[in-house]
ABC transporter ATP-binding protein (Streptomyces meridianus), 336 residues
Amino acid sequence: ADPFLSVRDLYVRFSTEDGIVKAVDGLSFDLERGKTLGIVGESGSGKSVTNLSVLGLHNPQSTEIRGEIVLDGQELTGAPEKTLEGLRGNKMAMIFQDPLTALSPYYTVGRQIAEPFIKHTGVSRREGRLRAIEMLTKVGIPQPKLRVDDYPHQFSGGMRQRAMIAMALICNPSLLIADEPTTALDVTVQAQILDLLKDLQQEFGSAIIFITHDLGVIANMADDILVMYGGRAIERGSVKEILTTPQHPYTWGLLSSMPRLSSDIDVPLHPIPGTPPSLLNPPSGCPFHPRCAFTDKVDGNRCSGERPALPAGRSAACHLTAEQKQSIFIESIQPR
Ligand code: SF4
Ligand code: MG
């Protein structure tokens, strides 16, 4: 059967004053119904841009998109704005990092939560408000019948994020895109929001794309992980595969810079040296080669000269041998 969401050879480019930004450079992935895909990468890796393209929220004036985005059999690339508008907030919805930029200070929380429901189902404002109360209850806002008439500034940060989730789920979307939804929250609230999202996913059956720079955040959340670097996917696998047997030197760096992987292995804390690649003038060959500590293990100048491909299935886009991909990181971990 065809996957629920299929992205094939996606290229996204913007024109800027400084030149053409190659934000996404040949990206392919699939997402099954009801599953969670974590897209992990540093800022500028193309992860947010990819998802804005799925939602059709890019600026058509300055953005060039090539490739295929097919949602439940429907082609989204090049679809008329009217089609996308009918899907956004309805069949596909988004939770943003900062609810304050997504919620208007001038309208009550309840009115904003109800808005997509009223728009897509045509119910009355009264019915919309009742549905908003129901959704506030589901996301764990106490006294929802009173709080529905509050303004966003009367909510705490965690409650605003819950309200955003209520708004995103009100039309029962089959695809939910969450872009760093807990980054602005403290650790305790973050954990609560992740639990909530997981529970609601069970209830609503939505597929989720969870975008994050922090592998730890999605360790308990995602089924599969796609690691992005410099606008490209560089590794893909199940959560377990990525966390326990990562194959790409960049993923090794991400894991090593995570505070604590699990209780039985002790990975030293190493931030990855260097900076993310320029998307105006991307490096030749492997985009990670200026930062990679393993180029001398690859024959010739292949790392700087030849772009490694990312084959389908469990794989890493790297010229190291299959043996090296499997052994180097594992051997570097000292068992406790
Ligand atoms: Fe490092 Fe070369 Fe692999 Fe790129 S292809 S990650 S530079 S070893
Ligand atoms: Mg981003």
Q: What stands out?
A: Residues 251-335 form one domain. The pocket of iron/sulfur cluster (ligand 1) is lined by residues 248-249, 286, 288-289, 292, 294-295, 298, 303, 308, 318-320 (CB under 6 Å). The two ends are 45 Å apart (CA to CA). The longest strand covers residues 19-31.
